[in-house]
């Protein structure tokens, strides 16, 4: 008897391998997947401008990077003894104005290079809800704990998201026409918006992506990976959530990664992934007697494995 439904997912025509250069952008679920890629020592970078939740925030920063925008004093503001930028995450905020501007402009240059060099870009959308700064009439990526009365909350329509997704693809392919873009919707539930509102938000994202990506992947080099659907329809149980009942727990993340590996990573990489995992587990091993002969031999064998892989793949560092 079958006690759950399995989502059929076709294997990608452009799989990831150890020659691939991957960039992950978007919500905290993008970070979960990037951590897996990092663990297995793929060439991966994640969220240079911090976690971003909605399509317009991601599109805007990709546009900045492609056009090599220079941030100036008019793009930042002072609040709670720190300098912030409404277009980036608060992790980048700084007590020194010049340092913030310098770091933002350095990130623009490095992101431009990463967009041009990436073979795969993974974009995870979290929500359709956005906040508009009433004074400037501009949509922000992060409110930085500025009083809520200074913002107006809005829901992006399916049509607005479609336009943003299409423009994001166009911007990336303008500097890197051969790059494969993998879109996904975060399974994290944004209950602060409301239960019905969260469902509407996710529905708008999924509807827009379905509409834009309905062309054959060979024509667009953009595909959809159903991480949201795997949680909602395949796992479908609160035991796959953390204590807050909103975020997928490690078991769920591991399962989604397993499906991602089977459908999006080349089988030619599997043997190397096993070697990397073996080394990672060995490095986390805590011996009872660090000075014992057996442990010293164990360490020597691990170093041999590391040296072999690092000689084979110069970008790998353990």
Provide a brief overview of the structure.
This protein has 318 residues and is an alpha/beta fold. Helices cover 45% and strands 14% of the residues.
Structure description:
This protein is α/β, with parallel strands linked by helices. It has a single domain, classed as Rossmann fold (3-Layer(aba) Sandwich), CATH 3.40.50. It is built from ten helices and ten strands. It has helices at residues 28-39, 55-67, 97-117, 158-175, 195-212, 217-220, 227-235, 250-264, 270-283, 293-312, and strands spanning 21-26, 43-46, 77-79, 82-84, 120-125, 129-133, 138-140, 151-155, 180-185, 222-224. It has a five-stranded parallel β-sheet with strand order 2-1-5-9-10, sandwiched between helices. α2 (55-67) packs parallel to α4 (158-175). The chain is globular and about 70 Å long.
Gross morphology? globular
Mean pLDDT over the residues: 94
Provide the β-strand percentage band: 5-15%
- The number of helical elements comes to 10
User: Spatial order of the strands in the main sheet?
Assistant: 2-1-5-9-10
Query: Termini separation (Å)?
Result: 44 Å
Mind describing the biggest β-sheet? 5 strands, parallel
* Alpha-beta content class: alpha/beta
- What do we call the CATH topology? Rossmann fold
- In terms of per-residue confidence, which ranges show pLDDT below 50 for 5 or more consecutive residues? none
Radius of gyration: 21 Å
């Amino acid at each position: 008897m079958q006690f759950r439904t399995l989502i059929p997912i076709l294997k990608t025509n452009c799989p990831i391998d150890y020659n691939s250069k991957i960039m992950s952008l978007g919500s905290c679920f993008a970070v979960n997947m990037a951590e897996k890629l990092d663990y297995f020592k793929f060439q991966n970078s994640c969220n240079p401008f911090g976690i971003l939740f909605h399509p317009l925030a991601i599109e805007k920063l990709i546009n900045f990077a492609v056009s090599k925008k220079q941030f100036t004093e008019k793009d930042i503001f002072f609040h709670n003894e720190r300098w912030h930028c409404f277009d980036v995450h608060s992790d980048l905020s700084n007590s020194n104005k010049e340092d913030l501007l310098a770091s933002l402009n350095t990130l623009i240059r490095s992101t431009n290079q990463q967009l041009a060099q990436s073979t795969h870009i993974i974009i995870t959308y979290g929500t359709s809800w956005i906040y508009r700064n009433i004074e400037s009439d501009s949509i922000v990526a992060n409110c930085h704990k500025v009083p809520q009365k200074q913002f107006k909350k809005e829901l992006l329509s399916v049509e607005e998201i479609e336009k943003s997704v299409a423009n994001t693809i166009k911007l990336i392919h303008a500097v890197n026409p051969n790059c494969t873009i993998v879109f996904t919707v975060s399974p994290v539930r944004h209950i602060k918006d409301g239960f019905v509102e969260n469902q509407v938000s996710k529905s708008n994202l999924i509807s827009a992506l379905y509409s834009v990506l309905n062309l054959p992947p060979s024509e667009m080099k953009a595909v959809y990976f159903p991480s949201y659907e795997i949680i909602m329809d395949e796992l479908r149980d609160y035991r796959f959530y953390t204590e807050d009942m909103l975020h997928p727990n490690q078991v769920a993340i591991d399962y989604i990664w397993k499906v991602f590996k089977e459908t999006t990573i080349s089988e030619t990489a599997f043997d190397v992934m096993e070697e990397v995992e073996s080394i990672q587990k060995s490095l986390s091993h805590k011996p009872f007697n660090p000075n014992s002969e057996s442990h010293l031999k164990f360490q020597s064998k691990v170093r041999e494995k590391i040296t072999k892989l690092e000689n084979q793949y110069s970008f790998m560092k353990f």
